[in-house]
Amino acid sequence: MAGNSARTQAVQNITNRQPMPPKAPQSLASLWASDVFTLSKMKECLPKEVFKSLKKTIETGAELDVSIADVVALAMKDWALSKGALYYAHVFYPLTNATAEKHDGFISVQSDGSVISEFGGKVLVQGEPDGSSFPNGGIRSTFEARGYTAWDVTSPAYIMTTDNGATLCIPTVFISWTGEALDKKTPLLRANAAMNKAAQRVLSLIGHTDIAPVNSSCGAEQEYFLVDANFVNNRPDLLLAGRTLFGASAAKGQQFDDHYFGAIPERVQVYMQDVEQQLYRLGIPAKTRHNEVAPGQFEIAPFFESANVATDHQQLLMTILKNTAKKHGLVCLLHEKPFKGINGSGKHVNWSVGNATQGNLLDPGNTPHANTQFLLFCGAVIRGVHKYGPLLRAAIATASNDHRLGANEAPPAIMSVYLGSQLDNVFEQISNGEITGSLNAGVMNLGINTLPVFSKDAGDRNRTSPFAFTGNRFEFRAVGSSQSVAGPLVTMNTMLADSLNWVADSLESQLNAGINLDGAILKTLKTLIDQHGAVVFGGNGYSAEWHKMAVEERGLRNLKTAADALPVLKEPDVQELFEKLGVLSPVELASRFEIYAEQYILAIEVEAKLVVGMAKTGIYPAAVKYLSDLSATLSSLKTNGVELGNERLVLIAGLLTSMTATADTLSATLAKHDFATIEEHLQFCAQTIRPLMDEVRQFADELEGEIADELWPYPTYQEMLFIK
């Protein structure tokens, strides 16, 4: 138990903490989307023709008629004022994984000194935040500040409330004065448009005439940790880096498998219910909550939504998780690996594509062998992952995500596709040149009359696969907990668009050569799986055998660190992919490499400085004090005829000397800044700085097990993970 004053006070604060006052529960009907300017609210307050025009743009992607902006702005303002809003904000998503907002008041001062509320179409459609103070990767010089936000009509406006008021929030894109995308939303909208265009080609070629716009959908499972704020406030590493840079494992961790899906602690459940009420008011369909594998770890999962809206909602979800935690005396940690030795946190992105006329295009039905539409789209995904697997890896490459990829809690850095036994068999038949049938999914009969007989799924799950088919969608399991889902979605939609265009080209070529449609489909699928089937793997992704086979026999790349993966963004085939589909220009793509590389380097440098500081100013004084006390005690005992020996003194002194010397080396190494390229700097951080940090930690964590608990300066794993 804590002994030093700060740790003792932290535990006492938690012990004496008063629970949050209870709230009367509200019905789902009264909560749902009550703070969202939904289509139904627009219909109530907009003229019929204006509403029809706006609805067409939202639902079909038709060009926005900017002449209606004044009418929409007036209705939006009146609705916001009725909710108590005095300000509006253009909300955008710069290349930081965070959300940005520029707030302006509705207030307009009149010549007689009175005020009115004012909000016109011009300010709805366009805003102007400072474009130079956000990451831009060299697109703009520091002295060139102009940037624009532009209204994204496809993502609904909403009200964010605090205890003192409300703000109308308007989702927007963020671009530079010269027109380049400085955000994550613009490329996502472009990628979805490219995928829709390619999908329409394929659907038309296989005989469909009534084809609604094709959209991608996303449901992102969010994992997170909750730690009492009293502990976090005494951990500089958690405050500034989001993870513990020191900390010996507690005697009990997750080895009993007793936390996963266990009974949710009452304090946490109250927090979750508070979060969910806020999410429902914002129209965010939170569906699932449960304990995760590690102690102190939890998960929330929303229902599927269109990818653009889901991305906006994901950003809101992370904001609400963190802000609500503060009200409950907690801190929500979204870092991928806040605690060494137990599971880290990911964000499994469930992704599919479909439309209103053909439905979910990745739904195999009961007889996938006969569902050629599904096989073409599924095959296109397989081709995309094989051809652009390194790009997928680069899309989830961060300093924090490196801590979990490849461990027994997360998929490996090698991108492969899991299909399950039924689809494996179907694509094997295709490779052999003839499709004969699908394996029967079967039923589950437990042999007990009181228990139901139910249908089994066609295939098992594979938790070691980074890209797994899970029934009617693919699950990208390697995305990091703290990441925006926009980057992965941009990559998946773009690679799918490229593959669907390849499918369409193949079908057109064969149909023009006189081959009938069924023959053209089978030949296209056979060529596809023969060329790209190497990416399909259903075994243990953690095994050394797979890692060797993947690289040496199948030609897949194992990009173990972000330093290895980020340079993929500079490769010619990646540049060509994004440029030809109009998703990212070469300048925009180059800027992203610069930004993400800089973020990786800065993250490592911040952590390294924290390691040096905490080792020297926290752990070193505690160890010296203990050595002094222990030496004095042993000397006193010896004077009184009790000889205990000084082995413990020697051990602690040796660990302390090693820790301090390594910390000094780390500090000196951080001073190096003469690198020929960014790639060289990335590798220096990954291969030199990180190992030195780990070495300092090794000595410090051993010291934690030797020094008197009352002297240890920082809250321990036992306290942070188990005291709630």
Architecture overview:
Among the domains are: 32-182, Glutamine synthetase, N-terminal domain (Ubiquitin-like (UB roll), Roll); 599-722, Up-down Bundle (Four Helix Bundle (Hemerythrin (Met), subunit A)). The protein contains 22 helices and 20 strands. Helices cover 46% and strands 14% of the residues. Strands 9, 10, 11, 12, 13, 14, 15, 16, 19 and 20 form a ten-stranded mixed β-sheet that branches. Strands 1, 2, 5, 6, 7 and 8 form a six-stranded mixed β-sheet that branches. The mean pLDDT is 92. It has 724 residues and is α+β, with helices and mostly antiparallel strands. Residues 1-25 are annotated as: Disordered. Residues 86-179 form the GS beta-grasp domain. One of its GO terms (biological process) is glutamine biosynthetic process.
Looking at this protein, list some descriptive labels.
Ubiquitin-like (UB roll), Glutamine synthetase, 14% strand, 6-stranded mixed β-sheet, Gln-synt_C, 10-stranded mixed β-sheet, 724 residues, glutamine synthetase activity, alpha+beta
Topology:
Layout: H1 5-15, H2 28-31, H3 39-45, H4 48-60, H5 69-82, E1 85-92, E2 100-105, E3 107-109, E4 115-117, H6 121-125, E5 126-127, E6 147-151, E7 158-162, E8 165-176, H7 185-205, E9 215-228, H8 229-232, H9 236-241, H10 266-281, E10 286-291, E11 297-302, E12 305-306, H11 307-327, E13 330-333, E14 347-355, E15 359-360, H12 372-395, E16 417-418, H13 421-431, E17 443-444, E18 454-455, E19 467-469, E20 474-476, H14 486-512, H15 517-532, H16 544-552, H17 562-565, H18 572-580, H19 586-639, H20 647-670, H21 678-704, H22 717-722
